[in-house]
């Protein structure tokens, strides 16, 4: 009897046959609703069978043969599988050819093979066909063995209109006129062995830069017409990244070319298709003279991240989607390392503190998850693309690199890659390689971090000759009746401590406490600030640490403030502890520390009663006023990259939280200069200026921002002005913005706008009502991967008016469920409970805590 799918997972294909090569032909016209194709898949026969299974979603198979015999086709839509049945068994140990003809509609949900529509510089509309296959989108474009360990080579042929460019993973080998007039047939070189999810097909009116080279690899940026001037920065970053990664991995770049392709409609930031990386335009194209420092750094990060995947992901691939966390976490680690090398003045590992904090804020909630967990259905894989995969995963890897040492860590990673070149691996394979290189119990340590959710709170208590370290799980919701959820316990915590004279000690903290001896106070725990855990100093020790606040490293200062504020939110420390630290930041120069303080003050403003708001504004002024006085409002040639970002954080805090008259007047002046076409703010201050103007603006400012969104200077300019539309405070203006989410705003951007409206302190309830009354329409309109983002700011509804709607929010989502992103929505609702409890404790009592 022939069994189809594996008994333990009905979504997995059988291994009776496995692919070795695809000859794939696709006829694609972006202006036509339907595409069609044909393919011959050469398979290895592992077991005699009269049934072959492939993955297929929304494809119509019109002809199927296995060998020379016609095959019947049945569809298992639930498990996304088609089954080809025939009468003559395939013989074990032989190769066989599967021939299929198929067709489908170009999709509109930014998945599979889909259509992107954009206007050129003359306002003429164009269509582009492009792909997004990770995690399981390839099966929406052609029948295939769409599992990461079923690798094969691919010979791609694309038939496309003569006037359009056609790009895929490898260079074009030849072309000829098609039998259909007006079409060209493009043949491409056969790829290396690779997984289906990193294939890409793009057909459209594209322009490409002349290639630049890195270690002999040609690199181009491909884009819609009129955007060539925005490509130089990404090209330089890509040249750096290829050279950097070849040296770091000691393995050559694995493909014969690298195309970086800007896509107008794109659900993710970017996608690591081998040799043909696709990007959201704002993650690739930039005018360096107009861009903010943070925008340049983000583009560098994204480009480096995707190129890192060429080795870690494309060349060596996880066996199954439970390993996707390592794929993305390690690429995030390498992205930060490479960006830091591209410009050391950016201090990228210090900036990463903000990203890690976002992950820990999720990880302290009951609905957190282990970094790695079993993946059964495709939707399970989709849920892995979150902060816990990227940021917490990266933090855990960085912690291990620090513990082992950089050279030993590199040696282990190189051994791992060389042992699995062109193949697949499990997470455990990397731990074993690091263990072999170091002699340390890497697997034992790492499994406590990746196989359970949550993270530890390391308590530091004073001893006569040092400190005692112990751990407990950190929980934001820590009352006896609160669920624990997937927050675990008893981590193996690699801890580095130091005394102020620089002397360091390393301990591995387990279930039993550890004593660290010291000759001087204070002892700094989590020295260097790398460890992804929180630290709580006893009430005896905290004042001593605060006394030396300015002598701490940047990440140590950041962690002290972030950990203390989190303990306040979790009702484990008094608000006065946080205020004491905030008041020490008036001479702070690091933008990440300042951003953390600004976010905390913003929440204080939200929960404050009207009579308390002046006190919050005064505190904000006392902290950020001196910062801006030191930096100045105007950029200078001597500005460091961090000074540019710090100025923007301080300017925004003073203009939106403190309502500083001078800052507001300067913002309005720059805005009017921008309207007149002469002058305006620097790129670093542009978003802050728009937010401040929108807070106080009326119809005339709204009209200009709306027009600028519709007629932008570049993609980043478009995004800035789009988001600023959501910052206006008048209900009449916001009620003009909200319907645009379902109509004229690109679907890729709709969730960002809705999130921003709900977060708007004055009109958030309008966003809430719109979301609830148009729930089904939003799900139909927005990309699946953005559902959670659309509702991600619900936790900000804690103002004097909006907190009254809390019961409505919880009741609504008890009966309205997201088909994807449900865990992330649950985290948002739990975060809402945290903020509501914080409001209950402190609203009406703030003046006793604020100076």
| The CATH homology group name of the domain at 1-203 | tricorn interacting facor f3 domain
- Could you give the distance between the termini? 79 Å
Q: Which range does the strand content fall in?
A: 15-25%
| CATH level-1 class of the domain at 1-203 | Mainly Beta
- Sheet bearing the most strands, described? 8 strands, mixed
Strand adjacency order, main sheet: 5-4-8-2-1-11-14-13
Identify the overall geometry.
Answer: globular
Topology of this protein?
Elements: E1 17-27, E2 34-45, E3 49-55, E4 60-66, E5 69-70, E6 72-76, E7 81-90, E8 95-105, E9 112-119, E10 125-132, E11 153-161, E12 165-168, E13 172-177, E14 183-188, E15 201-204, E16 207-208, E17 212-214, E18 217-223, H1 232-249, E19 258-263, E20 270-271, E21 276-280, H2 293-308, E22 317-318, H3 324-342, H4 348-363, H5 378-382, H6 387-404, H7 406-419, E23 424-425, H8 427-438, H9 442-450, E24 456-463, E25 466-473, E26 493-499, E27 504-509, E28 514-517, E29 523-525, E30 534-537, H10 542-547, H11 554-569, H12 575-582, H13 591-607, H14 613-631, H15 641-656, H16 661-676, H17 683-696, H18 699-710, H19 715-725, H20 731-737, H21 747-759, H22 764-773, H23 775-781, H24 787-790, H25 806-815, H26 822-842
Parallel strand pairs: 1-11, 18-19, 19-21, 22-23, 24-30
Antiparallel strand pairs: 1-2, 2-8, 3-7, 4-5, 4-8, 6-7, 9-10, 11-14, 12-15, 13-14, 16-18, 17-18, 20-21, 24-25, 25-28, 26-27, 26-29
Cofactor: Zn(2+)
Pfam family, one: Peptidase_M1
Organism: Ferrimicrobium acidiphilum
């Amino acid at each position: 009897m022939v069994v189809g799918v594996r008994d333990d997972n009905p979504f997995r294909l059988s291994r009776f046959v496995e692919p070795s090569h695809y000859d794939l032909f696709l006829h694609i016209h972006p202006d036509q609703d339907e595409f069609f194709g044909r393919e011959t898949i050469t398979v290895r026969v592992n077991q005699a069978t009269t049934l072959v299974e492939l993955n297929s979603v929304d494809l119509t198979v019109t002809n199927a043969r296995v060998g020379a015999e016609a095959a019947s086709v049945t569809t298992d839509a639930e498990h996304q599988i088609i089954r080809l049945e025939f009468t003559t068994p395939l013989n074990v140990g032989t190769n066989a050819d599967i021939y299929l003809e198929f067709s489908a509609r170009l999709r509109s949900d930014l998945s599979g093979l889909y259509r992107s529509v954009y206007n050129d510089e003359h306002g003429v509309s164009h269509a582009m066909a492009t792909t997004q296959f990770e995690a399981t989108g390839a099966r929406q474009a052609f029948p295939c063995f769409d599992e990461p360990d079923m690798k094969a080579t691919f010979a791609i042929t694309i038939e496309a209109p003569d006037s359009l460019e056609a790009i895929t993973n490898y260079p074009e080998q030849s072309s000829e006129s098609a039998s259909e007039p007006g079409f060209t047939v493009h043949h491409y070189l056969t790829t290396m062995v690779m997984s289906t999810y990193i294939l890409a097909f793009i057909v459209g009116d594209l322009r490409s830069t002349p290639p630049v080279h890195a270690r002999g690899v040609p690199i181009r940026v491909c884009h819609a017409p009129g955007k060539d001037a925005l490509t130089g920065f990404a090209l330089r970053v890509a040249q750096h990244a290829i050279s950097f990664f070849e040296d770091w991995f000691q393995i050559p770049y694995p493909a014969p070319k690298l195309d970086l392709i800007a896509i107008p409609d794109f659900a993710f930031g970017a996608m690591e298709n081998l040799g043909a990386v696709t990007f959201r335009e704002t993650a690739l194209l930039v005018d360096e003279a107009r861009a903010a420092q943070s925008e340049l750094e983000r583009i560098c990060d994204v480009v480096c991240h995707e190129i890192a995947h060429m080795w870690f992901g494309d060349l060596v691939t996880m066996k199954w989607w439970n390993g996707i966390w390592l794929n993305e976490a390690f690429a995030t680690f390498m992205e930060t390392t490479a960006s830091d090398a591209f410009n050391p003045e950016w201090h990228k590992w210090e900036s990463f503190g903000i990203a890690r904090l976002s992950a820990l804020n999720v990880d302290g909630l009951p609905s957190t998850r282990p970094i790695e967990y079993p993946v059964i259905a495709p939707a399970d894989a989709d849920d892995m693309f979150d902060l816990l995969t990227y940021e917490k995963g990266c933090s855990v890897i960085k912690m291990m690199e620090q513990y082992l040492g950089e050279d030993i860590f590199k040696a282990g990673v190189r051994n791992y890659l060389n042992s699995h070149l062109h193949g697949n691996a499990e997470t455990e394979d990397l731990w074993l390689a690091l263990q072999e290189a170091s002699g340390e119990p890497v697997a034992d340590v790492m499994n406590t971090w990746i196989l359970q959710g949550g993270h530890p709170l390391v308590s530091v208590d004073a001893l006569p000759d040092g400190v005692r370290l112990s751990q407990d799980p950190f929980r934001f919701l820590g009352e006896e009746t609160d669920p624990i959820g997937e927050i675990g316990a008893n981590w193996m915590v690699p801890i580095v401590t130091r005394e102020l004279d620089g002397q360091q000690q390393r301990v591995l903290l387990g279930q039993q406490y550890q004593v660290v001896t010291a000759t001087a106070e204070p002892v700094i725990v989590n020295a260097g600030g790398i460890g992804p855990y929180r630290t709580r100093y006893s009430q005896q020790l905290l004042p001593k640490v605060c006394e030396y606040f300015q002598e701490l490293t940047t990440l140590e200062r950041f962690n002290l403030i972030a950990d203390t504020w989190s303990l306040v939110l979790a009702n484990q420390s008094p608000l006065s502890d946080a205020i004491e630290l905030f008041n020490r930041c008036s001479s702070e120069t690091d933008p990440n520390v300042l951003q953390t303080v600004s976010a905390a003050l913003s929440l204080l403003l939200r929960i404050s009663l009207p009579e308390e708001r002046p006190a919050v504004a005064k505190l904000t002024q006392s902290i950020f006023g001196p910062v801006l006085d030191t930096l100045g409002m105007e950029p200078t040639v001597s500005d460091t990259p961090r000074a540019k970002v710090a100025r923007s954080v301080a300017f925004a805090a003073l203009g939106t939280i403190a309502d500083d008259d001078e800052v507001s007047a300067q913002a309005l002046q720059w805005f009017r200069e921008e309207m007149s076409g002469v002058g305006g703010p620097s790129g670093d201050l542009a978003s802050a200026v728009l937010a401040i103007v929108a807070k106080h603006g009326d119809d005339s400012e709204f009209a200009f921002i709306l027009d600028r969104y519709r007629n932008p200077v570049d993609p980043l300019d478009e995004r800035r002005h789009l988001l600023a539309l959501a910052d206006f405070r008048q209900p009449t203006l916001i009620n003009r913005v909200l319907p645009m989410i379902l109509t004229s705003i690109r679907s890729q951007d709709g969730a960002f706008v809705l999130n921003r409206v709900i977060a708007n302190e004055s009109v958030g309830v309008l966003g809430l009502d719109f979301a609830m009354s148009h729930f089904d329409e939003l799900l139909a309109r927005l990309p699946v991967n953005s559902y959670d983002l659309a509702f991600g700011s619900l936790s900000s509804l804690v103002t004097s008016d909006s907190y009254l709607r809390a019961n409505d929010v919880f009741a609504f989502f008890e009966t309205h469920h997201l088909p994807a992103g449900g865990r992330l929505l649950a985290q948002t609702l739990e975060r809402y409970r945290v903020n509501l409890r914080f409001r209950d404790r402190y609203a009406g009592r703030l003046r006793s805590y604020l100076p």
